[in-house]
Amino acid sequence: MVIKFFEGNATLSWLDNYNSTYFIAEAGLNHNGQIDLAHELIDIACRAGAQAIKFQKRTVNELAIKSVLDAKDLRFPFLGQTYREIRESLEFSFEEYKELQRHATDLKLDFIVTPFDLKALDFLEPLSLKFYKIASHSVRNLDLIKAISESGKAVIMSTGMSTLEEIDNAVSILIKKGVDLCLLHCVSSYPTPDEDINLKVIETLKQRYSLPIGYSGHEVDDLATSTSIALGARVIERHITKSRLLEGFDHKLSLEESELQLLINRIRRIEKVLGSDKKSILNSENIARDKYNVSMASARALNKGSFLQLGDIAWKNPGTGIPRVQLDYYLGRELCVDIDLDVLIKPEMFK
Fold first, then answer.
1. What residues have CB less than 8 Å from 324, skipping those under 6 apart?
2. What is the reported pLDDT for 7?
3. What mean pLDDT is predicted for residues 158-177?
4. 332 φ, ψ (degrees, to nearest 5)
5. Which CATH class is domain 283-349?
6. Which fold has domain 15-274?
7. Domain boundaries, the chain
8. Angle at CA 215, nearest 5°, toward 56 and 24?
9. pTM of this prediction?
10. Number of neighbours of residue 122 by Cβ within 10 angstroms
11. CA distance linking residue 238 with residue 226, whole number of Å
12. What's the CA gap between 128 and 237, in Å, rounded?
């Protein structure tokens, strides 16, 4: 049974400005704390045809308790020796964020940032961003969601590792503040195996919330992402990287530039083949329609002055003559010309 949690509008003001699927290239942590690499990721997103580039902002002291932050973490030694050091090495200053925002804006890319805590939100507010992204693991952080709901920004929220009831709570806070909201189906497994992707959840979210729904993918290829378009995803988010050979958190499950471009091109083609829900005869079908449909033809030679009988008629290609649906109109009518065997019978042949 489908439960309608929220009866809202099926479109959003900002999303209505885009006639195609809105594609967010997630730079995330794949800049490895290097501002030059962050700029390269913006360029990659632009060249591939994305509409937005997204980064992440954390206040490291707010992430975890001290013992977790200061524990040894040797996954990425070039970034640091503890979890705190690694996270701190990945954070940009406010001036660097302004620099990245200017670069994205110059390339006509929307600049989106995910605030992971209240201090990060305060840090980002002076940038006057168009959107905020809420990460899956913030769905239960209701204080952060309440603060974001009061920002006046549109919101895109991922829904990974959350129950429907937990999503209900977050959506309720955002909707009560009139937030332009889009939800992304997401599975917080890196990378996500095929059997866990569950794209049918897109329809569950569409039916439950009457909001635009998208897909944030963490699979290693683009099959699920491409399929999500056919299921109605209006926003796509995928991680991007300069190279999967780089060391760092998300490079291995990210798309390189050529793959990103291929995916976006495939999405644009899927949009074309999905087309319209209106059934009509298309211009491209007229050649086949005229060639292969049947028309009224003479089953024998017919004389001028005779009256058309059923036995006088055969139905044959091409389809440019009298169609079968008009049979009753012409039966019994007088011919004004002689008609040879096996030719199309045309309206002008009758009195």
1. 294, 296, 315
2. 58
3. 96
4. 85, -5
5. alpha beta
6. TIM Barrel (3.20.20)
7. 15-274, 283-349
8. 45
9. 0.87
10. 12
11. 11
12. 22
